Amino acid sequence: MTHAVIKDITARITERSKKSRAGYLAACEMQMREGPRRRRLSEGNIAHASAGCAVLEKAELLGAKWANIGIVTAYNDMLSAHAPFEKFPELIRHAARRNGATAQVAGGVPAMCDGVTQGRDGMELSLFSRDNIAQGAAIALSHDMFDAAIHLGVCDKIVPGLMIAALRFGWIPQIFAPAGPMPSGIPNPEKARVRQAFAAGEATREELLAAEAASYHAPGTCTFYGTANTNQMLMEVMGMQLPGSSFVHPNTPLRDALTAQTVRRATQITNMAQGDDAAFTPACKVISEKSIVNGIVGLMATGGSTNLTIHMAAIARSAGIIINWDDYAAISAAVPLICKIYPNGIMDVNHFHAAGGMAFLIGELLSEGLLQGDVTTIAGGDGLHAYTKEPVKNMHLEVDSVIWRDGPTKSLDPEILTTVKEPVREDGGLALMEGNLGRAVMKISAVKRENWFVEAPAIVIDDQNELIEMHKAGELERDFVVVLRFQGPRANGMPELHKLTPILGLQQDKGFKVAMVTDGRMSGASGKVPAAIHLHPEALMGGPIAQVQTGDVVRLDPANHTVEVVGTDLAGRDLATQPSQPQLAALGMNMFAAQRAIATDAESGASTLGDMPWFI
Asked: Is residue 419 included in any domain, yes or no?
């Protein structure tokens, strides 16, 4: 039986989205066709699309008897999580043949790495790359050659961007095929210790580089529970990839078998499939109000990335579903945190996977009524209950052969993965903050309770490098709240500000009460230091954060959900103006000026794609 709060929130979202959801589904229904999509193309269209193919594929494409699967890939070999995708198209093509289908790379999309651009000018393109990815994937799918699509993407903006495009083409089936995490490197707390030591001048640059290289050391996703791994959790909880496929290492027999099995399943859910496993499953039927709520439940139960408070809104709107931070807050109050994965704990996603992983997590949340099992998924059959199973490779059969067995019903390590009745904490660890500064969110699951409440004089800055210079000058040896403004979507693309974490963490460890308030973002690994982030209205749009002055007393009180300036009437003050930012005028950066000019606020998804017709 579904938990009463979850049922009520789902009903509230359904009612709020009634008109837009109906419009979306009607628009998808209008695009659906019987038989292969390419049958409607002209002979010249199909000849162009098949000219470069091998003889077998060309014969089938021209004959229009087999389903054709489009591959949208975010491969590049600079990004460790995406490097394994280099060989995926060939694996997919071979698997398609074995399953009576063809497969073509429909297009590629960019995949920038926030780890590389962290603290650099390029980070100011990061958030908008999501919508660029969505547009690139839309171009790939626009040829109307494909009866299903397989998306190859893992990391921060890539999965949300691909999901937006998948839902905009929601009339065909869409499946995600992940690459998996790298093996564990040095413990995450040790990496954080070296970073803080470097910030304090107690470690050399060579020691810092050695620690970083020992952390990020192989192909695969970074192993901390940041945005990339939160994305993978969501794709399973929302039913968009195969059960148990998130955290299997790259370049292993099971990973290759799962990729092949993804192709088999993609073929089975086209409208051309035959047999007992055939079930036409377009993306518009997989993502529903219930699956969106399931995703937010998973986010709270695992202590996932704060970036998803932005991305989930954009994903949901692409399916005609409207959510807001009040929904997050209500779900956070009802769903306990049952995982301790860095930065909420010491261990990483590999330890989480070994302790029971997604199969245990989903089974536990289903058994307590916190996840809604009666949803459509790409796995078919038993709704979300299929995701309580885990895959194993059958070494005696062909490469496609994966056997799903019942997942564990008890955690192998309760320190990492526990139960709803004995949680890490009673809520999901995400607080909605409101007050005379606007609306913000704060991830409290990784912040020690004694550090939650901060009331201290403001240090108002407009560039994160200003705080770094103050630290070098020894000016931060006191209690303070850094108010970092003009970091919103319209100001400079809303960069992550994780570069400041070692400095703030160092001052907190010295016993000072420190916090941050910003209209920018923190990393998916944000934690330890209290930070009210994604504040809106942003400074450039006249938000009150533009009226705060250095020395004003700022209060962060997540227990009471408040972020405010105390004892000062901001209304009578002039708004600060955005200082000149030369990097935004640089040749590459100014290509995104048009997107900055139209971006929505963080709570609405920080979208640059505009409202869909079904919202009108």
From this structure: no
